[in-house]
Amino acid sequence: MAKTLNIDGKRLYASLAELGRIGAYTDENTGIVGVNRLALTAADGAGRRLVTKWFRAAGLRVTIDKIGNVFGRRPGRDDSLAPVMLGSHIDSVPTAGRFDGCLGVLGALEVVRVLNDAKAATRRPLVVAFFTDEEGCRFGTDMLGSAAATRRIPLERAYALKDRDGLTVKDELRKIGFLGGEPVGRLRPHAYLECHIEQGPLLRHKGLDCGVVMGVQAISWQELTIVGKSAHAGTTPMSFRRDAGLAAARLDVALREMTLSGRYGRDMRAAMGAINLRPNMVNVVPSRAVCTVDLRNPSDALMAKAEADFARLCKKIAKQDRVAISSRSTAKTPHVPFDASVQALIAAQADRLGLSHEPILSGAGHDAQEWSRVCKTAMVFVPGEYDGISHNPREFSTRKQCTDGVNVLLGAAQVLAEEA
Ligand code: GLV
Ligand code: MN
Ligand code: MN
Predict the structure, then answer these.
(1) What does the pLDDT look like over 108-138, one tens digit per residue?
(2) Is 142 in the pocket of ligand 1 (CB under 6 A)?
(3) CA atoms within a 13 Å half-sphere pointing along the CA-CB vector of 275
(4) Which ligand is in closest contact with the Cα of 90?
(5) What are the beta bridge partners of residue 218?
(6) Cβ(91) to ligand 1 under 6 A?
(7) What domains are there in the chain, each with its CATH number?
(8) Side-chain half-sphere CA neighbours of 187 within 13 A
(9) Which of 83, 121, 149, 187 could connect to 127 by a Cys-Cys bridge, CB 3.0–4.6 Å?
(10) 99 and 385 in contact (C-beta within 8 Å)?
């Protein structure tokens, strides 16, 4: 029987604040201080070094794999058993808060710190980890580190991905000193747990203390290249133009209409997050647009329908605006259900702690969805203030909300780590 322990919420929150100072920036719209630690930048490197230092200070044996995932191992009483792994990511989008991903990593570290303070041993080893480029917005593919570690994405393909400046994952990993030597694809944990902020309004609006994550909805990303013809903005009659920017705008509006149509269920989401025009000048009709499309849907079938319909729309708009539109899939994951027994364990831990909870499907992608192919996996969600806004500097969960979620993580980890 594992000891009843509680995490130190003050220490957890102080660690979140300290990591949040790395890559801090002032948001141009609001003046709020946020976090910009885009994957494999110098700021990500600095964040990695700080967390790795904390791992070592907690007595963890640190290893780094070939895709830059960092693992800290705490031995078990029977060290030959497969470990229970707890993790998430510390890379961020350029307009982040301090909680997305970091709560799961520093929460996992806090679990180890509490066990250390109590001199509590676990039967199975524990591994706490942070994974490379979960966000995917620099190199175009999300959950990159955990996807490579679990062999969904071959290492060489991951290494070759390029950012907008043509810099590769492999070179950038080397530059920040995190091109490790551990082979990928070998680690097979007994179970994987991740605590994460919800990044949406549901838990907070229902007044719940936490969410038991049932799984992650389907995600499909593509990059569109629209080729038109540059022309003089003042002299070219409207009917003569082949305006790549106009086609991008039409597609963005069409995506919005698709989400509102109800044809893809009530929960289809879509965003054209990036539109890059060339030459991007006031008096030149755009000759080229490179834009991204992010589609999400809880149903794989409805996702497939949305993708097919969008491809047809691209053809129609290409004809209408006399442009060429090509598309490249950059990331695609199906709906991923989490393990029912681990969900039940998380719910039981929340009950034990007197925390209200409900099952919830994740709208965001997570490292947990990759590990769920390898071992039994589930997640606990923590509510967020301000409608749970995320990918925004205003992202905020209170100390109590974070403490509750990480206490659930601790309890569930202790149970899993005693399993035969
Ligand atoms: C990760 O943040 C995602 O885009 O879902
Ligand atoms: Mn995240
Ligand atoms: Mn994110």
Answers:
(1) 999 999 999 999 999 999 999 999 999 999 9
(2) yes
(3) 15
(4) 2
(5) 297
(6) no
(7) 9-217+335-417 (3.40.630.10), 218-333 (3.30.70.360)
(8) 31
(9) 83
(10) no
